[in-house]
Amino acid sequence: MAETVLRKPMKATHSINNAFASKFAKSMFLTVSAIIVLMFIGTRMFTHVDLNLYGYMVGTFVFIAGFFYRFIAWGERPPTKIIIKKGIKLLFRKSTPKISADHLATYQFIWNRGIYRWTQHLLIGWGVILSCLVTFPLVFGWMYFTMEEGGYYTIVAMGIDLMTVPADGVIAFLSYNALNFTAIMVIIGVSMALYRRLKNMQARAEQKFLYDFLPLYLLLFISITGLILTFMNVFLHGAGHYMMSLIHQYSVIVTLIYLPFGKLAHIPFRPLSVFARNYREHYGEQSMKECKVCGEGFVSTEQSQDVVNVLGTNEIDFTMEKDGFNLAELCLPCRRKYRIARFSGFPTHEVKTKEANQNAKG
Amino acid sequence: MKKRLYIELENCIGCRSCLAACTQCGGHEQRNRNYVYDVNPHVNRQTMPLMCLHCENPACARSCPAQAIQIHETGAVLSALVEKCIGCQNCTIACPYGIPKFDEEENLMYKCDLCIDRTKDGIPPMCASVCPSNTLQWLTEEEIEQKQQQHDLDNGKWVTSMPYLEGETNVKVNLPGILQGTEKLF
After folding, report:
1. Which residues belong to any copy of the 4Fe-4S ferredoxin-type domain (chain B) (predicted)?
2. pLDDT (tens digit, 9 = 90+) per residue, A89-98?
3. Does domain A22-273 have CATH number 1.20.950?
């Protein structure tokens, strides 16, 4: 009898998820398939694949595997899961484009941390992003050049003839040298970053070779070997080109494989800051949590509850039985005063006076 | 030898040297990360410092979606990594003591890192270096043990952390003599 109760009828599900062994397998399959389909379209049925760049292609697939491995493991953490889930839901808020531009393109918050750091970050960041925008379309054949008639290049994007430009014109010049310009950007930015790491006392105390220096050296190595390639072609009539192109290719592939696991992992993860801002603003507009002591709204009700739940999954619970509140329900000054009250036995948090002189300014 | 920050709260005279010293620590960029509170501001002058206690199971790091709050091998719970902090402020809600500060302009949380550039080499943190009243001390395990024996009144009123705090902490706190019903002679 008991057995029949326990046995549940098999439910026939046809969800796409059932086709894959894991989330990782699904993400990987869909991404690689999408890239191959786009390649098929972009290269006019694989007739214009640049096999000179084939190493980069393999490197990219390894990178994607590493990226999904790291990202999925990270996304399983309870607080991360909440931000990702609610962030996606709130992605179409009106303020998203502005916040994205501020956080991901102009780095307004880094400007506020210091103009030197902003400059180095802008040079490295945009140097790398622009390089990727040039490199990967070339690797997968989403963009290539043909010369139908002498002296004119036709730029083909996604299999469509985009425009025909004179081979010695401005657009052609910019196309040939795009990676040289970005390499110079990255070299200047990395040099600034290295200089700061050698001089800044806090940086010197905290930095580690593998985490802080290695990514900088890798970027420097890529940029310099790339520039040497140009130098060899322009001034040495291509002497040593093949050896150097292999060295350059290896350096890029090593960086790609390393990227999801070191400091550079913040490149794919950073858009979460837009999610976080949307999350705070949206739920803040809905309802603010009022401090259980002073009654002032200090955070959205949603976030307060989310944090309590996340701590709960970690078996951390700050419910104060005696006082009838959770510590997450107190605004920060009240929470600090409550701690003083716990230390002293006198209910400091109930004294209605502002916290005095917390900045050591007289 | 491993040393800990040890706080003897009742010694505090409210001079705020610890706040001033904190601003001078490398990387703190002229902003302090600790607090000094009046216990009963309209009645007397007793003050107490409030520092990050560097929990062994830190709620701030547990609640961080970006893994921006790292724990140093010395046990210090570090300030947010600048490239990882996404500015969600979960840590400020999670911390049972209300320690993390948030800079809206820089979209960055900052908190006491126990002056990691100093303490990783056994040098006391800035606050303990300057405290004139021995409220903040930098002691070995044995010295803290001695303190415990010296102050233990056998009535459960001696406290280093548990069960009076919300969890085990790397910083040890001594509850004031006021509670113990004793007066200290300096």
Report:
1. 3-33, 39-74, 76-105
2. 999 999 999 9
3. yes
Find chain B residues with C-beta within 8 A of A334's C-beta: 98
Query: What is the domain extent for residue B115?
Result: 3-177
**Cβ–Cβ of B96/A339 closer than 8 Å?**
yes
**Tokens standing for residue B178:** 């006021």
CATH of the domain at B139: 3.30.70.20
Please, are residues B96 and B59 in contact by the beta-carbon 8 Å criterion?
Answer: yes
Residue B182 domain flag:
no
- To the nearest whole Å, the CA of A10 is away from the closest chain B CA by 37
Q: How many CB pairs under 8 A join A and B?
A: 176
User: Residue B131: what pLDDT?
Assistant: 94
Query: What single DSSP character describes residue B162?
Result: B
For residue B59, the chain A residues in CB contact (below 8 A) are 311, 314, 316, 318
Radius of gyration for the alpha carbons in chain A, expressed in angstroms and rounded: 27
Q: How far is A190 from chain B (nearest CA, A)?
A: 16
Could you tell me which chain B residue has the CA closest to the CA of A340?
Answer: B39
pLDDT (tens digit per residue) in B117-128: 889 888 999 999
Task: Say what the ipTM of the complex is.
Answer: 0.91
- Among B48, B107, B176, select the one facing A273 at the smallest CB separation: B107
The number of folded domains in chain B is 1
The tally of CA atoms less than 13 A away on the side-chain side of residue A197 is 18
- CATH 1.20.950 region(s) of chain A? 22-273
Cα(A163)–Cα(A165) distance, rounded to whole angstroms? 6
A356: closest CA of chain B, how far (Å): 7
The residue among A166, A163, A137 whose CA lies nearest residue A152 is A166
B143 and B4 Cβ atoms separated by less than 8 Å: no
Distance from CA of B169 to the nearest CA of A (A): 14
B186 found inside a domain: no
Size of chain B, expressed as the number of residues it contains: 186
Please list every residue in chain A whose beta carbon sits closer than 8 Å to the beta carbon of residue B82.
113
Cis, peptide link before residue B163, omega less than 30° from 0: yes
Asked if residue B71 is part of any domain, the answer here is yes
